[in-house]
Design a protein that fits this description.
The protein has 558 residues and is an all-alpha fold. Among the domains are: 80 residues, Tetratricopeptide repeat domain (Serine Threonine Protein Phosphatase 5, Tetratricopeptide repeat), CATH 1.25.40; 84 residues, Serine Threonine Protein Phosphatase 5, Tetratricopeptide repeat (Alpha Horseshoe), CATH 1.25.40; 78 residues, no CATH class; 79 residues, Winged helix-like DNA-binding domain superfamily/Winged helix DNA-binding domain (Arc Repressor Mutant, subunit A). Helix content is 83%, strand content 0%. The protein contains 24 helices and no strands. The longest helix is centred in the middle third of the chain and has 155 residues.
């Protein structure tokens, strides 16, 4: 109904006489249209082929007009195959226009025709189309039901050569539903069946790579995905290439290789040609930058996600508006077609009475159009108010999201400052212990060297006890507990990478991690600086560090 409002609003100066002349001219055209009847199936098939060609040229109005006329002709002559093709491709027109509700209605009509009058292969075609439609709507359970029907039906049809194709569709939807084992079974069944169909085999390999990722087999998934990339060249494979690049980025992210994850997310952004996958690309880039702690870049790409979503929504709204106009034109055309046929039959018997009836009909239509204009203006005003309200809500939501993100960033900065403060306190405590131990050690050595002290065995035994106390000072245990609080999981990660390290080795590495020097560490461990250097060399060998690699630099990467 949108198209009529726009058309009439451009003709506000038409007089009643002009309207009457135009109505009479349209009526004559209706009558003339009835004389050009299609006489054979081949002519009807030619009409359908022309409609399909126009559909792929995105000339949906012309395509739908031809297909609806072909449907009416096929119904009149009981040509089931032609009626099926015309109805099915009418649904495909609406699918390409993203009007899934209208597309589903025509697909179901085609399905009824196929069940009653046609072969299994036609039934399979409709089931698969319905499954794809539900998949695009993210109604995964419904999509799986229809793909499963096509899969089971193709397995019983000895003439079907598309069983592997339907199995791949089932695998893809099973992956999306996280039913990894089901998807794996369908992929293994499909691969031998699609060897001679390169395009479908690529889809099978993509499904396999995604399935391995879902099952956490990251190395195998990465190898599969990387072998697919050279095959996905050209605009025809742009969306598939973006899918594979994002999959590789996710794999590297799970393996904590954030630099490579960022690299492949950037490649996906460069390969992206459509807005539909732009949101996923920006989301991947945002996650990669968060992992690399580049929060400014992460926030920018978070904003890009929201902008891409809004842009896509605007495009969909415009598409919906255009679809409504096209739908009205097609409904008007179908109405005109049926009316022309009716008027043609009556004209052959009662030409003048039909002329009068036609004029009355168009006067009535004119009155309906005028009423429609008024209602349309009201609906348009309501729609504008609703859109304005929705825009206000969206802006408020975006503001709240930005405030939350700023709060999170401030909290992260506060935690970082607290961690730095605790590390400084911990380092001060370690230095204090080092200085205290050095002082006590000097006193013990001085007293032990004194001749008067040597003459007193009891005093010498007390000095030895003091030295032993330095080696088993309980404050060190408290120190290491504080270290784990400030640097949680460090020792666990260290031992996971190098389980052959002793507890003394771990303590030594902790002191190095805090940037303490050889003399300070020697004092804390009550050993000589020379022993400290030797221990560092011994630990480097245990960690299997090569020539020229620093132990202090290596432990900062753990």
């Amino acid at each position: 109904m949108e198209f009529l409002y726009f058309h009439l609003s451009k003709k506000t100066l038409l007089s009643p006489m002009d309207i009457t002349k135009k109505c009479f001219l349209i009526f004559i055209l209706f009558c003339a249209a009835g004389y050009g009847q299609v006489e054979s199936k081949s002519e009807c098939n030619a009409m359908i082929e022309k409609g399909i060609a126009l559909m792929f040229e995105k000339k949906h109005v012309q395509s739908l007009e031809i297909l609806l006329e072909a449907t009416a002709i096929a119904q009149k002559n009981d040509w089931s195959q032609q009626e099926f093709r015309a109805v099915l491709n009418t649904g495909s027109n609406y699918y390409l226009m993203s009007d899934f509700g209208e597309a589903l209605e025509f697909y179901l009509k085609a399905y009824e025709i196929a069940i009653e009058h046609l072969q299994t292969k036609d039934e399979l075609t409709v089931l698969n189309n319905i499954g794809i439609l539900y998949f695009q709507e993210s109604n995964l359970p419904k999509a799986r039901d229809y793909f499963l029907k096509a899969y089971e039906l193709s397995s019983t049809d000895i003439n079907s050569n598309k069983h592997g194709y339907y199995a791949i569709n089932l695998a893809l939807v099973s992956n999306k539903m996280n039913k990894a084992e089901d998807a794996s079974r369908y992929i293994q069944e499909a691969l031998p069946l699609v060897r001679d169909q390169p395009e479908i085999e690529i889809m099978a390999k993509m499904a396999l790579a995604e399935n391995l990722f879902i099952k956490s087999n990251y190395d195998q998934a990465r190898e599969r995905a990387l072998t697919l990339l050279p095959q996905l060249v050209g605009d025809a494979h742009a969306d598939n290439r973006v899918f594979v690049l994002l999959l590789i980025a996710q794999i590297y992210e799970r393996q904590q290789n954030y630099q490579l994850a960022l690299q492949y997310a950037r490649r996906a952004r460069a390969a992206s040609k459509s807005l539909e996958n732009r949101e996923d690309v920006y989301e991947a880039l945002s996650k990669a930058y968060i992992s690399l702690r580049d929060y400014d870049s992460a926030l920018r790409y978070k904003d890009s996600v929201i902008m891409a979503r809004d842009t896509l929504q605007k495009i969909r709204n415009i598409t919906l508006y255009e679809n409504n106009k096209i739908k009205f034109e097609i409904q008007n055309y179908a109405h005109q077609l049926s009316e022309s046929q009716l008027l043609l039959q009556k004209e052959r018997r009662f030409f003048y009475s039909v002329v009068v009836f036609g004029l009355l009909l168009f006067v009535l239509a004119l009155w309906i159009f005028r009423n429609h204009i008024t209602k349309q203006k009201q609906r348009k005003k309501i729609t504008e108010l609703e859109l304005e309200q929705e825009k206000s809500k969206r802006l408020l939501a975006e503001k709240q999201i930005r405030e939350r993100e700023i709060g999170i960033k401030l909290e992260q900065q506060r935690l970082k400052n607290e961690l730095d403060l605790k590390n400084r306190k911990l380092t001060s405590k370690a230095v204090y212990l080092s200085s205290r131990n050095e002082l006590i050690e000097e006193i013990v050595e001085t007293l032990s060297a004194n001749a008067q002290v040597k003459a007193q065995p009891e005093l010498l035994s007390q000095l030895k006890a003091l030295s032993k106390h330095l080696k088993n000072n309980p404050q060190f245990d408290s120190f290491f507990s504080h270290f784990e609080e400030v640097n949680p999981g460090f020792s666990t990660r260290l031992l996971a990478l190098h389980p052959n390290l002793t507890q003394q080795d771990v303590r030594f590495i902790m002191y190095l991690y805090m940037n303490l020097g050889n003399n300070e560490i020697a004092s804390l461990l009550n050993i000589t600086p020379q022993s400290c250097r030797k221990r560092k060399e011994r630990i480097s060998k245990k960690l299997d560090l090569g020539e020229g690699k620093s132990l202090a630099v290596y432990i900062t990467t753990i």
